Amino acid sequence: MSIQTIGMLGTGQLGRMMAIEAHRLGLLTVGYGPKSGPLSDVADVTVGPWDDEDALRHFAARCDVVTWELEQLPVATVDILAESRDTPPSRQALEITSDRKLEKEFVQEAGLPVVPFVVSNDNGLSPDHVQFPAILKTRTGGYDGKGQVSVESPPELDDAWNQLDRQPTVLEQQLDLHYELSVIGARTRDGETAIYDLCHNHHRDGILRWTLAPAPTGASWKRDAHQCLATLLERFDYVGVLTAELFVTDQGLYINELAPRVHNSGHWTLEGAETSQFENHVRAVAGLPLGSTRAREHSLMVNIIGEPPTLEQLAEVPGAAIHLYNKSPRPDRKLGHVTICQPEARALLEPGQRLLELVREDPTPLQRLLT
Ligand code: ADP
Ligand code: MG
User: What is the pLDDT of residues 45-94, one digit of tens each?
Assistant: First the structure.
Protein backbone atom coordinates (compact mmCIF):
# COMPACT_ATOMS: atom_id res chain seq x y z
CA MET A 1 0.00 0.00 0.00
CA SER A 2 1.38 3.39 -0.86
CA ILE A 3 1.54 5.74 2.12
CA GLN A 4 -0.14 9.13 1.76
CA THR A 5 -0.92 10.21 5.32
CA ILE A 6 1.51 10.02 8.23
CA GLY A 7 0.15 10.02 11.76
CA MET A 8 2.42 11.89 14.18
CA LEU A 9 2.27 11.27 17.92
CA GLY A 10 3.42 14.43 19.70
CA THR A 11 2.93 18.00 18.56
CA GLY A 12 6.34 19.63 19.12
CA GLN A 13 8.85 21.24 16.79
CA LEU A 14 10.32 17.90 15.73
CA GLY A 15 6.90 16.84 14.44
CA ARG A 16 6.51 20.21 12.76
CA MET A 17 9.79 19.87 10.88
CA MET A 18 8.91 16.32 9.80
CA ALA A 19 5.50 17.49 8.60
CA ILE A 20 7.08 20.29 6.55
CA GLU A 21 9.45 17.82 4.91
CA ALA A 22 6.60 15.35 4.32
CA HIS A 23 4.61 18.15 2.71
CA ARG A 24 7.42 18.77 0.21
CA LEU A 25 7.16 15.11 -0.78
CA GLY A 26 3.42 15.50 -1.30
CA LEU A 27 2.56 13.55 1.87
CA LEU A 28 0.07 14.68 4.48
CA THR A 29 0.70 14.69 8.25
CA VAL A 30 -1.96 14.53 10.95
CA GLY A 31 -1.02 14.88 14.60
CA TYR A 32 -2.19 13.60 17.98
CA GLY A 33 -1.15 14.66 21.46
CA PRO A 34 -2.31 15.87 24.87
CA LYS A 35 -1.94 19.50 23.82
CA SER A 36 -1.50 21.50 20.66
CA GLY A 37 2.00 22.69 19.77
CA PRO A 38 4.26 23.79 16.92
CA LEU A 39 2.94 20.93 14.75
CA SER A 40 -0.57 22.40 14.98
CA ASP A 41 0.47 25.32 12.74
CA VAL A 42 1.25 23.03 9.82
CA ALA A 43 -0.93 19.95 10.33
CA ASP A 44 -4.37 18.99 11.57
CA VAL A 45 -3.86 17.99 15.22
CA THR A 46 -6.28 16.07 17.43
CA VAL A 47 -5.86 17.00 21.08
CA GLY A 48 -6.54 14.09 23.40
CA PRO A 49 -4.95 12.10 26.22
CA TRP A 50 -2.55 9.23 25.54
CA ASP A 51 -5.04 6.72 27.01
CA ASP A 52 -8.20 7.66 25.11
CA GLU A 53 -8.68 4.43 23.16
CA ASP A 54 -11.61 5.67 21.08
CA ALA A 55 -9.80 8.85 20.05
CA LEU A 56 -6.64 6.86 19.21
CA ARG A 57 -8.56 4.32 17.08
CA HIS A 58 -10.30 7.18 15.29
CA PHE A 59 -6.90 8.79 14.70
CA ALA A 60 -5.39 5.55 13.37
CA ALA A 61 -8.22 5.27 10.87
CA ARG A 62 -7.12 8.57 9.31
CA CYS A 63 -3.48 7.50 8.83
CA ASP A 64 -1.63 5.02 6.63
CA VAL A 65 1.20 4.72 9.15
CA VAL A 66 1.79 6.12 12.66
CA THR A 67 5.13 7.37 14.01
CA TRP A 68 6.27 9.72 16.80
CA GLU A 69 8.40 12.74 17.54
CA LEU A 70 8.89 12.29 21.28
CA GLU A 71 9.87 9.49 23.63
CA GLN A 72 7.68 10.62 26.55
CA LEU A 73 5.01 8.41 25.05
CA PRO A 74 3.34 5.44 26.78
CA VAL A 75 4.01 2.13 25.02
CA ALA A 76 0.33 1.29 25.66
CA THR A 77 -0.64 4.14 23.30
CA VAL A 78 1.49 2.65 20.56
CA ASP A 79 -0.05 -0.78 21.21
CA ILE A 80 -3.55 0.56 20.60
CA LEU A 81 -2.49 2.13 17.30
CA ALA A 82 -0.58 -1.02 16.33
CA GLU A 83 -3.85 -2.98 16.32
CA SER A 84 -4.60 -1.44 12.93
CA ARG A 85 -1.47 0.35 11.71
CA ASP A 86 2.25 -0.11 11.35
CA THR A 87 3.96 1.99 14.07
CA PRO A 88 7.61 2.64 13.19
CA PRO A 89 10.32 3.24 14.26
CA SER A 90 10.17 0.44 16.89
CA ARG A 91 7.97 -0.39 19.87
CA GLN A 92 10.91 -2.13 21.52
CA ALA A 93 13.17 0.89 21.07
CA LEU A 94 10.50 3.14 22.60
CA GLU A 95 10.10 0.86 25.60
CA ILE A 96 13.82 0.45 26.19
CA THR A 97 14.95 4.02 25.60
CA SER A 98 12.29 5.43 27.94
CA ASP A 99 14.08 3.79 30.90
CA ARG A 100 17.76 4.55 31.52
CA LYS A 101 18.29 1.17 33.20
CA LEU A 102 16.83 -0.87 30.33
CA GLU A 103 18.64 1.35 27.83
CA LYS A 104 22.05 0.90 29.43
CA GLU A 105 21.53 -2.86 29.72
CA PHE A 106 20.49 -3.10 26.07
CA VAL A 107 23.55 -1.16 24.95
CA GLN A 108 25.81 -3.33 27.13
CA GLU A 109 24.27 -6.52 25.78
CA ALA A 110 24.99 -5.28 22.27
CA GLY A 111 28.66 -5.16 23.32
CA LEU A 112 28.79 -1.37 23.25
CA PRO A 113 30.35 0.90 25.90
CA VAL A 114 28.19 2.62 28.56
CA VAL A 115 29.19 4.91 31.44
CA PRO A 116 29.72 2.89 34.68
CA PHE A 117 26.42 2.89 36.61
CA VAL A 118 24.37 1.27 39.37
CA VAL A 119 20.60 1.03 39.69
CA SER A 120 18.61 1.92 42.81
CA ASN A 121 16.38 -0.63 44.52
CA ASP A 122 13.75 -0.16 47.25
CA ASN A 123 16.44 0.15 49.92
CA GLY A 124 18.40 2.80 48.08
CA LEU A 125 21.68 2.68 46.25
CA SER A 126 24.90 0.87 46.95
CA PRO A 127 27.39 2.89 45.00
CA ASP A 128 30.20 0.33 45.21
CA HIS A 129 30.96 0.18 41.52
CA VAL A 130 30.72 3.88 40.81
CA GLN A 131 33.43 6.45 41.42
CA PHE A 132 32.57 9.92 42.64
CA PRO A 133 31.71 12.61 41.68
CA ALA A 134 28.63 11.00 40.19
CA ILE A 135 25.27 11.96 38.75
CA LEU A 136 21.97 10.58 40.00
CA LYS A 137 19.38 10.38 37.20
CA THR A 138 15.75 9.31 37.27
CA ARG A 139 15.22 6.18 35.20
CA THR A 140 12.27 7.70 33.33
CA GLY A 141 10.99 11.11 32.31
CA GLY A 142 14.23 13.15 32.24
CA TYR A 143 15.13 15.55 29.45
CA ASP A 144 17.26 18.70 28.97
CA GLY A 145 19.13 17.90 32.19
CA LYS A 146 15.94 17.64 34.24
CA GLY A 147 15.64 14.75 36.71
CA GLN A 148 19.38 14.81 37.48
CA VAL A 149 21.36 15.74 40.59
CA SER A 150 25.15 15.91 40.94
CA VAL A 151 26.55 13.96 43.88
CA GLU A 152 30.05 14.87 45.02
CA SER A 153 30.51 12.06 47.56
CA PRO A 154 28.59 9.03 48.97
CA PRO A 155 27.22 10.82 52.08
CA GLU A 156 25.32 13.23 49.80
CA LEU A 157 23.54 10.41 48.06
CA ASP A 158 20.49 10.15 50.26
CA ASP A 159 19.84 13.87 50.07
CA ALA A 160 20.16 13.78 46.30
CA TRP A 161 17.71 10.92 46.09
CA ASN A 162 15.20 12.88 48.19
CA GLN A 163 15.49 15.73 45.70
CA LEU A 164 14.29 13.25 43.07
CA ASP A 165 11.36 12.16 45.30
CA ARG A 166 13.04 8.76 45.76
CA GLN A 167 12.01 7.74 42.27
CA PRO A 168 13.76 4.77 40.64
CA THR A 169 17.16 6.08 39.58
CA VAL A 170 20.51 5.19 38.12
CA LEU A 171 23.73 6.52 39.60
CA GLU A 172 26.35 7.16 37.00
CA GLN A 173 29.99 8.12 37.23
CA GLN A 174 30.57 11.75 36.21
CA LEU A 175 33.14 11.56 33.46
CA ASP A 176 35.71 14.10 32.48
CA LEU A 177 34.43 14.82 28.98
CA HIS A 178 36.70 15.98 26.19
CA TYR A 179 33.60 16.64 24.18
CA GLU A 180 30.13 15.39 23.39
CA LEU A 181 29.15 13.98 20.04
CA SER A 182 26.03 12.48 18.58
CA VAL A 183 25.47 10.09 15.74
CA ILE A 184 22.21 10.05 13.82
CA GLY A 185 21.14 7.54 11.21
CA ALA A 186 18.17 5.96 9.52
CA ARG A 187 17.12 2.48 8.50
CA THR A 188 14.40 1.24 6.14
CA ARG A 189 12.17 -1.83 6.40
CA ASP A 190 14.50 -3.54 3.92
CA GLY A 191 17.46 -2.94 6.23
CA GLU A 192 19.08 -0.19 4.15
CA THR A 193 20.90 2.22 6.48
CA ALA A 194 22.35 5.70 6.09
CA ILE A 195 24.27 7.50 8.84
CA TYR A 196 25.19 11.18 9.06
CA ASP A 197 28.53 12.72 9.85
CA LEU A 198 29.12 13.12 13.59
CA CYS A 199 27.74 16.15 15.39
CA HIS A 200 29.86 18.03 17.95
CA ASN A 201 27.47 19.17 20.66
CA HIS A 202 27.99 21.92 23.20
CA HIS A 203 25.78 21.67 26.30
CA ARG A 204 25.39 24.11 29.17
CA ASP A 205 23.29 23.22 32.25
CA GLY A 206 22.33 19.93 30.60
CA ILE A 207 20.78 21.67 27.57
CA LEU A 208 22.15 21.56 24.02
CA ARG A 209 23.26 25.08 23.05
CA TRP A 210 24.91 24.53 19.67
CA THR A 211 26.09 21.87 17.25
CA LEU A 212 28.95 21.91 14.78
CA ALA A 213 28.84 19.35 11.96
CA PRO A 214 30.68 17.47 10.66
CA ALA A 215 32.41 17.27 14.06
CA PRO A 216 36.09 18.19 13.73
CA THR A 217 37.22 14.81 15.14
CA GLY A 218 39.45 12.02 13.91
CA ALA A 219 38.18 9.44 11.43
CA SER A 220 38.38 6.65 14.02
CA TRP A 221 35.66 8.17 16.25
CA LYS A 222 33.44 8.41 13.21
CA ARG A 223 34.05 4.79 12.25
CA ASP A 224 33.40 3.58 15.83
CA ALA A 225 30.28 5.71 16.27
CA HIS A 226 28.85 4.61 12.93
CA GLN A 227 29.49 1.01 13.90
CA CYS A 228 27.68 1.50 17.24
CA LEU A 229 24.65 3.06 15.58
CA ALA A 230 24.51 0.44 12.82
CA THR A 231 24.51 -2.29 15.49
CA LEU A 232 21.67 -0.63 17.41
CA LEU A 233 19.56 0.00 14.26
CA GLU A 234 19.93 -3.68 13.39
CA ARG A 235 19.17 -5.00 16.89
CA PHE A 236 16.00 -2.93 17.18
CA ASP A 237 14.95 -3.91 13.61
CA TYR A 238 14.48 -0.17 13.42
CA VAL A 239 12.57 1.80 10.75
CA GLY A 240 13.29 5.54 10.78
CA VAL A 241 15.79 7.84 12.49
CA LEU A 242 17.68 6.83 15.65
CA THR A 243 20.09 9.02 17.64
CA ALA A 244 22.91 8.08 20.01
CA GLU A 245 24.47 10.71 22.27
CA LEU A 246 28.15 10.00 22.87
CA PHE A 247 30.80 11.05 25.36
CA VAL A 248 34.46 11.24 24.36
CA THR A 249 36.93 10.81 27.24
CA ASP A 250 40.54 9.70 27.79
CA GLN A 251 39.16 6.16 28.05
CA GLY A 252 37.47 6.42 24.66
CA LEU A 253 33.89 6.60 23.44
CA TYR A 254 30.80 5.93 25.61
CA ILE A 255 27.15 5.85 24.65
CA ASN A 256 25.39 8.31 26.96
CA GLU A 257 21.81 7.81 25.84
CA LEU A 258 19.62 6.97 22.87
CA ALA A 259 16.66 8.81 21.39
CA PRO A 260 14.19 6.81 19.25
CA ARG A 261 13.53 9.82 17.05
CA VAL A 262 15.00 12.74 15.15
CA HIS A 263 17.20 14.87 17.41
CA ASN A 264 18.02 18.50 18.14
CA SER A 265 21.68 17.88 17.27
CA GLY A 266 20.55 16.91 13.73
CA HIS A 267 18.75 20.14 12.89
CA TRP A 268 21.74 21.25 10.81
CA THR A 269 20.85 18.53 8.27
CA LEU A 270 17.95 20.68 6.98
CA GLU A 271 20.42 22.96 5.21
CA GLY A 272 23.73 21.16 5.71
CA ALA A 273 23.08 17.65 4.39
CA GLU A 274 21.82 16.35 1.08
CA THR A 275 18.75 14.91 2.82
CA SER A 276 17.62 16.09 6.25
CA GLN A 277 17.03 13.80 9.23
CA PHE A 278 13.36 14.79 9.07
CA GLU A 279 12.99 13.81 5.42
CA ASN A 280 14.84 10.54 5.99
CA HIS A 281 12.54 9.62 8.86
CA VAL A 282 9.54 10.37 6.64
CA ARG A 283 11.07 8.38 3.79
CA ALA A 284 11.74 5.37 6.00
CA VAL A 285 8.28 5.25 7.58
CA ALA A 286 6.63 5.84 4.18
CA GLY A 287 8.50 2.88 2.69
CA LEU A 288 10.67 5.02 0.41
CA PRO A 289 14.42 4.62 -0.17
CA LEU A 290 16.62 6.85 2.03
CA GLY A 291 18.22 10.00 0.67
CA SER A 292 21.94 10.74 0.85
CA THR A 293 23.18 11.75 4.30
CA ARG A 294 26.29 13.44 2.89
CA ALA A 295 27.15 16.84 4.41
CA ARG A 296 27.05 19.55 1.74
CA GLU A 297 29.13 21.99 3.79
CA HIS A 298 30.17 22.74 7.37
CA SER A 299 27.22 23.74 9.55
CA LEU A 300 26.74 25.50 12.86
CA MET A 301 23.32 25.16 14.49
CA VAL A 302 22.55 27.47 17.41
CA ASN A 303 19.52 26.91 19.64
CA ILE A 304 17.29 29.78 20.70
CA ILE A 305 16.36 29.06 24.29
CA GLY A 306 14.32 30.93 26.90
CA GLU A 307 14.47 34.51 25.77
CA PRO A 308 14.58 34.97 22.00
CA PRO A 309 16.39 37.71 20.09
CA THR A 310 14.06 39.55 17.72
CA LEU A 311 13.49 38.18 14.23
CA GLU A 312 15.07 41.39 12.88
CA GLN A 313 18.27 40.73 14.84
CA LEU A 314 18.46 37.16 13.57
CA ALA A 315 17.68 38.20 10.01
CA GLU A 316 20.69 40.53 10.03
CA VAL A 317 23.14 37.63 10.42
CA PRO A 318 24.47 36.81 6.94
CA GLY A 319 23.48 33.37 5.71
CA ALA A 320 21.33 32.57 8.74
CA ALA A 321 18.61 29.96 8.11
CA ILE A 322 16.08 30.87 10.78
CA HIS A 323 13.63 28.39 12.27
CA LEU A 324 11.21 29.70 14.91
CA TYR A 325 8.70 27.27 16.37
CA ASN A 326 5.97 29.73 17.41
CA LYS A 327 6.26 28.84 21.10
CA SER A 328 5.81 31.37 23.89
CA PRO A 329 9.03 32.24 25.74
CA ARG A 330 9.72 30.50 29.04
CA PRO A 331 13.04 29.92 30.82
CA ASP A 332 15.01 27.01 29.32
CA ARG A 333 12.38 26.42 26.62
CA LYS A 334 13.64 25.64 23.10
CA LEU A 335 11.96 28.28 20.91
CA GLY A 336 13.84 27.94 17.65
CA HIS A 337 17.22 27.45 16.05
CA VAL A 338 19.42 29.06 13.43
CA THR A 339 21.82 27.30 11.09
CA ILE A 340 24.65 28.74 9.05
CA CYS A 341 26.61 26.76 6.46
CA GLN A 342 30.01 27.50 4.92
CA PRO A 343 32.34 25.58 2.60
CA GLU A 344 35.16 26.01 5.17
CA ALA A 345 34.61 25.41 8.90
CA ARG A 346 36.65 28.48 9.86
CA ALA A 347 34.29 30.75 7.97
CA LEU A 348 31.60 29.82 10.53
CA LEU A 349 33.46 31.68 13.26
CA GLU A 350 32.41 35.24 12.48
CA PRO A 351 28.68 34.67 11.88
CA GLY A 352 28.75 32.06 14.66
CA GLN A 353 30.06 34.59 17.18
CA ARG A 354 27.30 37.01 16.20
CA LEU A 355 24.68 34.33 16.73
CA LEU A 356 26.11 33.25 20.08
CA GLU A 357 26.12 36.88 21.21
CA LEU A 358 22.44 37.17 20.27
CA VAL A 359 21.60 34.12 22.39
CA ARG A 360 23.98 35.24 25.22
CA GLU A 361 26.25 32.24 24.91
CA ASP A 362 30.00 32.36 25.60
CA PRO A 363 31.78 32.11 22.21
CA THR A 364 35.07 30.74 23.66
CA PRO A 365 34.35 27.01 23.14
CA LEU A 366 33.44 27.65 19.49
CA GLN A 367 36.53 29.81 18.98
CA ARG A 368 38.71 27.05 20.40
CA LEU A 369 37.17 24.51 18.08
CA LEU A 370 37.48 26.59 14.93
CA THR A 371 40.91 28.20 15.34
P1 ADP B 1 19.04 14.40 29.10
O2 ADP B 1 18.04 13.31 28.91
O3 ADP B 1 18.57 15.49 29.99
O4 ADP B 1 19.65 14.87 27.81
P5 ADP B 1 21.70 13.33 29.66
O6 ADP B 1 21.97 12.07 30.39
O7 ADP B 1 22.00 13.34 28.21
O8 ADP B 1 20.18 13.69 29.96
O9 ADP B 1 22.49 14.48 30.38
C10 ADP B 1 22.47 15.83 29.92
C11 ADP B 1 23.88 16.37 29.88
O12 ADP B 1 24.50 16.32 31.17
C13 ADP B 1 24.82 15.60 28.99
O14 ADP B 1 24.68 15.99 27.63
C15 ADP B 1 26.19 15.98 29.58
O16 ADP B 1 26.54 17.31 29.21
C17 ADP B 1 25.89 15.99 31.07
N18 ADP B 1 26.13 14.65 31.63
C19 ADP B 1 25.21 13.67 31.80
N20 ADP B 1 25.76 12.54 32.30
C21 ADP B 1 27.07 12.78 32.45
C22 ADP B 1 28.19 12.00 32.94
N23 ADP B 1 28.04 10.75 33.38
N24 ADP B 1 29.41 12.59 32.98
C25 ADP B 1 29.58 13.86 32.55
N26 ADP B 1 28.58 14.65 32.08
C27 ADP B 1 27.33 14.14 32.03
MG1 MG C 1 20.92 13.87 26.58
Answer: 999 999 999 999 999 999 999 999 999 999 999 999 999 999 999 999 99
Atom of ligand 1 nearest to the CA of 146: 3
Q: For residue 83, give Cα distances in angstroms to 61, 67, 86, 260.
A: 11, 14, 8, 21
Report whether 135 contacts 118 (CB < 8 A).
Answer: no
| Closest listed residue to residue 132, CA positions, set 151, 159, 114, 157 | 151
| Model pLDDT for residues 118-143, shown as the tens digit of each residue | 987 766 677 777 899 999 999 999 88
Strand 5-9 vs strand 28-33: parallel, antiparallel, or unpaired?
A: parallel
Evaluate whether 216 touches 348 at the Cβ level (below 8 Å): no
Q: Is the pTM of this model over 0.85?
A: yes
Q: Give the residue whose CA is nearest to atom 8 of ligand 1.
A: 145
Atom of ligand 1 nearest to the CA of 137: 6
Ligand 1 pocket member 279 (CB < 6 A): no
Looking at all shown ligands, the one closest to residue 207's CA atom is 1
